[in-house]
Amino acid sequence: MQTIQATNYSVFFNETGYEKLASYLTASSYSRIFILVDENTSQYCLPHLLNQLATDIEIEIIELEVGEIHKNITTCTEVWGALSELGADRKSILLNLGGGVITDLGGFVACTFKRGIDFINIPTTLLAMVDASIGGKNGVDLGNLKNQIGIIREPKAVIIDPSFLSTLPQREMRSGLAEMLKHGLIYDKLYWDKFKNLTNLNTDDLNELIHQSIQIKNTIVCEDLTENGIRKALNFGHTLGHGIESFFLESEDKKTLLHGEAIAAGMILESYISKEKGLLSNEEYHEIKYIINDIFEPIVFEATDIEKIIALLIFDKKNEFGKVQFALLDGIGRSKINQESDNKLIYKAFEDYLL
């Protein structure tokens, strides 16, 4: 697959990525290479990466526990401490080998350790390949509030190796599809149409869909790196989706949702708001709802759940002047940013979702 050029880095694919990684590490004369993994990627992905690293530079491994619950400042402190104890300096580089938690947190750790060391993202989940590792957003959660602490700084490179996807459970694969669906909905109707029938999807088809999804996100980010305009469109489904994800994360009696599962629900809800605002036709809304519900199992919400989710919206990082800001659809394949919605309409969206 063809290399994708971002603002200040490249996204490489398959063997090309490992060749570029080896030559880059040699040319940059790093003092040490640190690889950040979690328990799963340490077991299933690290051996493959180490076999690809043709370098004499000393390599150290830092392993974290699995899960969004560990994406916080406490974990960052532990990683900063490990880097210091293992002799990291400003000429060290951090390779983030994992899903969205590892790439988000690892990027933030690298950006802040000794005022910034280089990092490269090597995503191992579908979600991280098409979203978390691309675009330079790095950060952690504040309690159960998503991505409240962070910085925008691009990696030195991103390496996409779809062979890692064979290590994923089916639920994790579905989670990644949510962001791909979103890219079609906000930017490219023809791309969205490809998800109407996934019955005969093969490996080559999936690899091409991944490449196109990354291209869409990269095109948007290159136009607006610091999210002052069009990049806000990438938040479609995330205002309510993050509220849902945070609520289920903090609720002891609820099953924790994967990011994509929460975002899938958020996209249906925000599609309904788009429809009610006259931006989306009734036919388009029902098409979106049907296709997403065909891939993702609908979430059950109690009335008290909805109240608490709406209360969390005020913490969304897109808000301005105390007002909740939505990125909505302006028809399939187009978006409209900086949109507001009152709570009454949000409640109606939940009511329709539950039908």
TrEMBL record:
Q: Which UniProt keywords apply?
A: Cobalt, Lyase, Metal-binding, NAD, Nucleotide-binding, Zinc
Identify the residues that the record assigns to the 3-dehydroquinate synthase C-terminal domain, covering every copy. Answer: 176-319
What range does the record give for the signal peptide? Answer: none
Q: Membrane-spanning regions, if any?
A: none
Which co-factor is required?
NAD(+); Co(2+); Zn(2+)
Gene Ontology terms: cellular component? cytoplasm
* GO molecular function ontology, one term from the record: metal ion binding
Question: Where does the 3-dehydroquinate synthase N-terminal domain start and stop, copy by copy?
Answer: 62-174
Identify the EC number(s).
Answer: 4.2.3.4
Into which EC class is this enzyme placed?
Answer: lyase
Q: Which InterPro entries match?
A: Dehydroquinate_synthase, DHQ_synth_AroB, DHQ_synth_fam, DHQS/DOIS_N, DHQS_C
**Any GO BP:** aromatic amino acid family biosynthetic process
What this protein is reported to do is described as: Catalyzes the conversion of 3-deoxy-D-arabino-heptulosonate 7-phosphate (DAHP) to dehydroquinate (DHQ).
Question: Which named protein is this?
Answer: 3-dehydroquinate synthase
Question: Which source organism?
Answer: Flavobacterium cucumis
